[in-house]
Amino acid sequence: MTSTLEPIMGSLIEDAPTKEFQDHTRAMMGRGYVTIVSIYPGLLEYRSRHYGLPVYTLKPPPRGGYSGLRVYDTEEWMNRPDPTDGKPTWLPGPIPARVVANALVQIWARSSLGNKSGFAPGVGIIEGDEPTTTELKALRDMQNKLFNWYILDANGKHLKGEATEINEIHRMAAKEMLDKGAEKLPWYPTVAFTEVKDCIACGKQIETRALVCPECKTDLPARYLQYNLDTAADPMVAAFIAKMNFGKGHSKGKDN
Q1: DSSP conformational letter for 181
Q2: Do 76 and 51 touch, CB atoms closer than 8 A?
Q3: HSE-up of 172 (CA within 13 Å, CB side)?
Q4: Is the preceding omega at residue 17 within 30 degrees of 0, hence cis?
Q5: For the segment 135-177, what is each residue's pLDDT rounded down to a tens digit?
Q6: 3-class secondary structure for 115-152?
Q7: Which residues contact 49 (CB under 8 A, 6 or more apart)?
Q8: Residue 210 pLDDT more than 50?
Q9: How far is CA 176 from the centre of its chain?
Q10: 10 Å Cβ neighbour count for 26?
Q11: Cα Rg, the chain, nearest whole Å
């Protein structure tokens, strides 16, 4: 059995710089819809098994603004027993837009680290096509509680020496709540990782860009040349030797 409903492409409705709405990409003609609004500064996505296999997406809104998604009544193919012989058969089951929208809001809430503590991102269903001031304030109050939880969580991890547990979600929350003040938090700057290599003389790990080992003081380019070693193992030394050889050849050319 196949559905008689014809898909139409959704449209992106933009009113920059404060808001951005979009229809999901496989809307169904003649069906009702519900609008979800987000003030969450990150991308929210969910791939469903609904009609047309849409990927429901809420884009990051502009700072201080919001983004929205219109979710339509849809269908999902469900495996149901045939009443005549009891054998399983696939039938399209209708799903109201509000049921879809409620499920999406819950899914995106559960994906946040603070969900177990009762906090959720600023994402919710609105009654009309555009959010009211009251609806936006409710979303902001809800999200502020989540983001304050993220900041406190990162503070605790920092004090316990668990810096590797602090991620970009924590930093995003700090940036959203504190703007430039986030840079003053001791855990906000990302950790810079220095690439290293093994010194061919003493075996100690040193910075990749080093030409002289700070441990044993070996001149690495000289060592490679002295023992005719393959410089492919150290691109920095190879580049230095190539530059040095080019300089010698260039000087000879001038003399001639």
Answers
A1: G
A2: yes
A3: 14
A4: yes
A5: 999 999 999 999 999 999 999 999 999 988 999 999 999 999 9
A6: HHHCCCCCEEEECCCCCCHHHHHHHHHHHHHHHHHHHH
A7: 76, 77
A8: yes
A9: 15
A10: 18
A11: 29
DSSP track, 227-254? TT--GGG-HHHHHHHHHHHHHHHHHHHH
Residue 92, Cβ density class (10 Å: 0-12 exposed, 13-18 middle, ≥19 buried): middle
8 close to 38: Cβ distance less than 8 angstroms:
no
- How many CB atoms are located within 10 Å of the residue 207 CB? 13
Strand partners, 80: 89
Locus of tokens 């190879």: 238
Q: What is the model's pLDDT at position 191?
A: 52
Euclidean distance between CA atoms 98 and 34, whole angstroms: 6
Asked if 125 contacts 119 with a C-beta cutoff of 8 angstroms, the reply is: no
Look up residue 179 and give its two tokens: 């703007």
- What gap in Å lies between CA 5 and CA 93, rounded to an integer? 12
Q: Are 7 and 27 in contact (CB under 8 A)?
A: yes
Q: Which tokens belong to 159?
A: 């004090």
DSSP 179: G
CA distance 85 to 83: 6
C-alpha span between 14 and 176 (Å, rounded): 23
Query: 36-88: per-residue pLDDT in tens?
Result: 999 999 999 998 878 777 888 998 998 889 999 998 888 877 776 777 777 77
Residue with tokens 């530059």: 243
Rounded CA-CA distance 31/98 in Å is 12
- Closest-CA residue to 234 (of 206, 189, 197): 197
